[in-house]
Write a structure and sequence with these properties.
The structure holds 2 protein chains of 2 kinds. By secondary structure, chain A is an all-beta fold. Chain A contains no helices and 11 strands. The radius of gyration of chain A is 13 Å and the shape is globular. Chain B is mainly beta. Chain B contains no helices and 11 strands. In chain B, the strands form 2 sheets. In chain B, strands 2, 4, 5, 6, 9, 10 and 11 form a 7-stranded mixed β-sheet that branches. Chain B starts with a strand and ends with a strand. Classes of the chains: A mainly beta, B mainly beta. Chain A binds chain B through residues 1, 32, 34, 36, 38, 42-46, 49-50, 55, 87, 89, 91, 94-101, and chain B through 37, 44-47, 50, 59-62, 95, 97, 100, 103, 105-108, 110-113.
Chain lengths: 107, 120
């Protein structure tokens, strides 16, 4: 199985900050990567698919990049409602796997 | 408006069985692949299975192969997850999710989840 490792596991930042979360795959996955946001007690929400494609309705401050084994999710100007846990997911091969998550706290 | 509602969760003993259901509305069910994903208490997400739009292919994560069976009923706009030989490691909230229209690989709408507890 492809292992997905996210870093950091926890990040604390202020409103307006630029935040970057990294996801590393244990083997090359091309561009088959998605990012999800999950708030406490809620279902995950698709933010980005195919590495850099913004899902409909997602604010433009979210962006994704990378290829192969290294990927990043960037929030350009942090907003209070961005407080959540973020997961990456590889969609290259079965079984699909998720990263362990990055908890984003607003200072 | 896309809506997914899971049901069937509960408490089962080790070695027992449960069947989860997920009823869809607000989209043409027969044209979308569907997934199950689970989340153990306080932990991350684990992808469980996917069924293609026409049920021609079904894939499972290794941890549930041979024990879980995913299916779909187009007439009821419902997917199912038959879970047998349950173990405490199967304890989790189980989410159903719709695949995106452009690819079955990504999950764009999720239900609220149904909790499963395996305990004696």
């Amino acid at each position: 199985d492809i292992q997905m490792t996210q870093s950091p596991s926890f990040v604390s930042a202020s409103v307006g900050d630029r935040v970057t979360i990294t996801c590393q795959a244990s083997q090359g996955i091309g561009s088959w990567l998605a990012w999800y946001q999950q708030k406490p007690g809620k279902a995950p929400f698709l933010l980005i698919y195919l590495t850099s494609n913004l899902q409909s309705g997602v604010p433009a401050r979210f962006s994704g990049s990378g290829s192969g084994t290294q990927f990043t999710l960037t929030i350009s100007s942090l907003q209070p409602e961005d407080s959540a846990k973020y997961f990456c997911q590889q969609a290259h091969s079965f079984p699909y796997t998720f990263g362990q998550g990055t908890q984003l706290e607003i200072k | 408006q896309v809506h997914l509602v899971e049901s069937g969760g509960g408490v089962a003993p080790p070695g027992g069985s449960l069947t989860l259901s997920c009823t869809a509305s607000g989209f043409i069910f027969s044209t979308y692949a569907m997934h199950w994903v689970r989340q153990p208490p306080g932990k991350g997400l684990e992808w469980v299975s996917v069924i293609l739009y026409d049920a021609s292919k079904i894939f499972y994560t290794d941890a549930v192969k041979g024990r879980f069976t995913m299916s779909r009923d187009v007439s009821k706009e419902t997917i199912y997850l038959q879970m047998d030989s349950l173990s405490p490691d199967d304890t989790a909230v189980y989410f159903c999710a719709r695949a995106t229209s452009s690819s079955p690989r990504y999950l764009d709408y999720w239900g609220q989840g149904t909790p499963v507890t395996v305990s004696s």
